[in-house]
Write a structure and sequence with these properties.
heterodimer; A: about 850 residues; alpha/beta; FAD/NAD(P)-binding domain; 5-stranded parallel sheet; 26 helices; about 30% helix; B: mainly beta; Rieske Iron-sulfur Protein; 4-stranded antiparallel sheet; 12 strands; globular
Chain lengths: ~850, ~120
């Protein structure tokens, strides 16, 4: 058994262990890893996510259990201080020594701290480890502003972190432009404009001379005699390879830093390899994760005696999202290595800059820069790396399809087999296509687990998806999205089966058309299909419902629920408001007004729900279905009844629409709005269906949504009367219900629909499929069979009895704990 | 928080010293779960009607320490019976208590028997 010792448990050190275990025969290698940080390897690339909510656990490359399960002896918090090459052993700071047969140095780098006068003052940090970040977060609580030295990739990430902490942000860059190694002057200016629009102040051509302050930083002064006041400083001015161990052991290190290696990643000592940021190949240190992974791969190949590809340098093309701005830089971005002619698209209005460098004979792509829109990055990179022929009008590549068709020569089908689709894990198109063609792989998840493509930065996933679809299509198979392991059918197929065969229960469907015992994916999906088809009381099949639907309420932290009665159109009488206030008071519920223009009452125990609802129903309220994948609300602005601008009665229409579709269940939630004039105060354009009044009638917009990926609704038809509007909404909603994948909002459904909006308009308005009447009938059935599900439960003792915490005791959950905020209760924090 | 978790220990079926009479069979839904109180423990009991099997585990989901597993959906992954926590869908095997799909710890499971229309849960102490 060969003893492998790895010094360094960063991303590359971890990847080495992962790859060695994956490829080696069991029992051939004993692996021991030493990391000086307290945590196991974590994703340093996405470090800034730590400021927007990710925890250390979320960032782990693999949990500690992975190391146990894979026989990798991980020592964290242990720093190696000496390598004894003669005795072939290493010595740690604890005084212990460890023998090795082969030693892998993956010591990475440290943040480079320029020798600025005053850099040791309090409030000055580097941006590299979780420990650094914890210190920064702690210090940030006492300050209002922070500066970042370094306008490169990492510096701008740090600037985002400063903004996420709510501070005033300044970026100090030595060069005359940001990201000087990836972007040209114009590209950098485009990026800068976007960052300044977010409130980040950029200072270029600044050479920091002194950090001022009495013990702690209060400002900085520069070589050009200017100053900046700041209360915190984050230094992100580059990296310094950690080569001190190697140097001390007599191994050659490069003049600019880094352990010198040959193309096989070997140091002067044939038993010692160096990989990742600590290694220097031909005087270059590679500060991206993809070349580090490639180095790890080739060392593993040598150890297990498979084919080795010499490391001859690495393409430093990169695409990333910096503070919400897409940036890509590939090949030779400045067009300097080989003579070239640039083609440039600059749009200061929308903040987009695209540049491609074309060879002198116009046949090849040599490199480029993308700022503001980097959607073409993947294919442009492929074209550069594989010498693919350019289309006759190369400007099409960055100007996009201007003739209504897809840009010619820019699809996955034109990629050669050797094209590297995933650069983090080095997976070629050929490898992926072979899996699909020869190994019967039909799902993206399978590709991910077999090849690891998409598991690094994830940027190649759109291309992997395209490749899968394309390959299957060329084999005569189409991609079918079965809902889970228990059914070999897509949602549309199951809907058809349910309708045609008259299936009314989940058990029936599973017995006749599925296998196994179901799961939390197919049960709610089928429950939704059944509801959209038969509209029966969902609590009759309560155990197939997702938790919210099971108890007809939204579950909250701690295990209590919220109560949301329907307030159609957002209009309510004073009497009804008083009822809500009274109920909330007596049951001691936390009250809040929702975005949907209604009132939410929180903190109801499961056993209190039927009692609360009984009172609400008595007072004339109905279920608001806030808990379901169903219609939620139709918002309104006050419209022509009161508003001096209103041209139609938006409130009446909103109430009519909400009462028409209440209770409708769908693949995902549905939200609508009606605005009384063009000023659009009800924000109808961000809804699944939005109606805006005109002098002549109503404009109908569809397929918008808010949330984490907001998208504006698009105009379906304009100036129609009330009846026509409702007819089209009936058809649209039913068409969506019939054809969408599970848990797909209308916007995503539209984006994926071949033919897009034109097709939907054709089907809904022009009745091109001849199903208009059928769809309207199906909707009419839903409307006719509507009944308030809470009313049904309240009046049914058997159903009411299910609302208990314990079935063998009348006690409430003893675990409920509360705390107070602004005079109301909220749950005690959960662990 | 952690002391709360330690109260729950998987009961070895060969070492049951105490069969707790929980509730009548009719108290439980089909293909779903309900929660019973046993001393200071909360136990989730599942009536896996499809498989004609009963399972029990702690009601406490270790992910965010919430007493909620009894309200989760049950199902199977390959052939292993499981429950999915309502909050974040952490999956746990109902046979072994192992956390199937993630990075949280395993849960305790207890044997169940049904006699004369009553459901019993087995404990070691």
């Amino acid at each position: 058994m060969t003893k492998i010792v790895v010094i360094g448990n960063g991303m590359v050190g971890y990847k080495f262990c992962e790859k060695l275990r994956a490829q080696a025969t069991e029992g051939d290698f004993e692996i021991t890893v030493f990391g000086e940080e307290p945590w196991p390897a974590y994703d340093r690339v996405h470090l800034s996510a730590y400021f927007s909510g990710s925890t250390a656990d979320d960032l782990m490359m693999a949990p500690r259990s992975w190391y146990d399960e894979n026989n990798v002896d991980l020592h964290t918090n242990e720093m190696i201080v000496k390598i004894d090459r003669d005795a072939k052993k290493i010595i740690s700071h604890t005084g212990h020594d460890y023998a090795y047969d082969k030693l892998i140095l993956a010591t990475g780098s440290a943040a480079f701290v320029p020798p600025i006068d005053g850099v040791d003052k309090k409030g000055v940090f580097v941006y590299r480890t979780l420990e650094d970040l914890d210190a920064i977060i702690d210090y940030s609580k006492k300050v209002k502003s922070a500066a970042v030295i370094g306008g490169g990739l990492l510096g701008l990430e740090a600037a985002k972190a400063v903004i996420d902490m709510g501070l005033d942000a300044h970026v100090i860059e030595f060069a005359p432009r940001l990201m000087p190694r990836q972007l040209d002057t114009a590209g950098s200016a485009t990026l800068q404009a976007k960052l300044e629009a977010l409130g980040i102040k950029i200072h270029l051509s600044k050479n920091t001379k002194k950090i001022t302050g009495n013990g702690k930083i209060t400002g900085m002064s520069f070589a050009d005699n200017t100053n900046l006041n700041t209360e915190m400083l984050i230094i992100s001015a580059g990296i310094k390879p950690r080569d001190e161990l190697a140097k001390d052991a007599g191994l050659t290190t490069a003049p600019r830093g880094g352990i010198v290696v040959n193309e096989f990643l070997q140091t002067d000592d044939t038993d010692i390899y160096a990989i990742g940021e600590a290694a220097s190949y031909q005087n270059m240190v590679y500060g991206l994760v993809a070349p580090g992974y490639e180095m790890a791969t080739q060392v593993v190949n040598q150890l297990v005696n498979t084919e080795v590809k010499p490391f001859m340098g690495f393409d430093m093309s990169t695409k990333l999202k910096l503070i919400g701005v897409d940036v890509g830089s590939f090949g030779d971005p400045f067009g300097e290595i080989e003579p070239s002619k640039p083609i440039v698209y600059e749009n200061k209005n929308s903040g987009i800059y695209k540049r491609i460098n074309v060879s002198m004979d116009g046949k090849r792509l040599l490199g480029g820069i993308l700022v503001g829109d980097a959607s073409a990055y993947n294919i442009l990179l492929q074209m550069t790396q594989n010498n693919m022929p350019l289309p006759p009008e190369p400007e099409d590549l960055i100007l996009g399809a201007r003739g209504g068709k897809e840009a010619a020569g820019a699809g996955v089908e034109s990629l050669p087999e050797e094209a590297q689709v995933c650069s983090c894990e080095n997976v070629t198109k050929g490898a992926i296509c072979s899996l699909i063609e020869n190994d019967g792989v039909t799902k993206v998840d399978e590709i991910k687990s077999c090849t690891k493509a998409g598991t690094g930065c994830g940027g190649c996933m759109p291309m992997v998806n395209d490749l899968l679809k394309h390959q299957l299509k060329s084999m005569g198979k189409t991609v079918k999205n079965v809902i889970c392991e228990h059914f070999d059918y897509s949602r549309q197929e199951l809907l058809d089966i349910v309708k045609v065969k008259g299936i009314k229960s989940y058990n029936e469907l599973l017995d006749q058309f599925g296998q196994g015992d179901g799961c939390e994916v197919c049960k709610p999906a089928v429950a939704s299909i059944l509801a959209s088809t038969w509209n029966e009381l969902i609590t009759k099949q309560d155990t197939i419902q997702d938790t919210n639907d099971r108890y007809l309420a939204n579950i909250q932290k701690g295990g209590t629920y919220s109560v949301v009665p329907r307030i159609p159109g957002g209009e309510i009488t004073p009497e009804k408001l008083i009822v809500l206030g009274d109920v909330a008071k007596r049951y001691n519920l936390y009250t809040k007004i929702t975005g949907g223009q209604r009132i939410d009452l929180f903190g109801a125990r499961v056993d209190q729900l039927p009692d609360i609802w009984e009172e609400l129903i008595e007072a004339g309220f109905e279920s608001g279905h806030a808990y379901g994948k169903s219609l939620r609300t139709i918002k309104s602005c006050v419209g022509s009844t009161w508003c001096r601008y209103g041209v139609q009665d938006s409130v009446s229409f909103a109430i009519e629409v909400e009462e028409r579709y209440r209770g409708l269940r769908s693949p995902h939630k549905l939200k609508g709005a009606v605005s009384g004039c063009i000023r659009e105060c009800a924000e109808a354009q961000s809804k699944d269906f939005g109606i805006i009044a005109t002098e002549k009638g109503w404009n109908l917009y569809i397929c918008g949504n808010g949330g984490s990926k907001p998208q504006h609704a698009q105009l379906l038809i304009n100036d129609v009367d009330r009846e026509t509007c409702l007819k089209y909404i009936d058809r649209f909603l039913m068409f969506y219900i019939r054809t969408a994948e599970p848990l797909t909002r209308t916007a995503t459904w539209l984006n994926k629909l071949e033919g897009g909006m034109d097709y939907v308009r054709d089907v809904v308005v022009n009745d091109s499929l001849g199903i208009g009447e059928e769809l309207e009938k199906e909707m009419a059935f839903m409307i006719d069979t509507y009944a308030c599900e809470w009313k049904e439960v309240v009046n049914n003792p058997e159903l009411r009895a299910k609302f208990k915490h314990f079935v063998n005791a009348d006690e409430e959950d003893p675990n409920l704990k509360w705390q107070e905020m602004r005079g109301q209760k909220i749950p005690a924090s959960w662990g | 928080m952690i002391p709360e978790l330690e109260k729950y220990k998987t009961a070895d079926t060969s070492n049951i010293n105490n069969w707790f009479k929980a509730a009548p069979v009719t108290a439980f839904p089909e293909n779903g779960g309900a929660c019973v109180k046993y001393k200071e423990l909360q136990i989730a009991i599942f009536n896996f009607t499809r498989r004609n099997e009963w399972y029990a585990c702690q009601n406490l989901c270790p992910h965010k320490m919430q007493m909620i597993l009894s309200r989760g959906m049950i199902g199977s992954v390959e052939d292993e019976p499981k429950v999915a926590c309502p909050f974040h869908k952490k999956n746990f095997s109902l046979k072994t208590g192992k956390n199937i799909n993630g990075d949280t710890c395993d849960i305790a499971v207890y044997p169940v028997k049904v006699e004369e229309g009553y459901v019993y849960v087995g404990f070691e102490e």
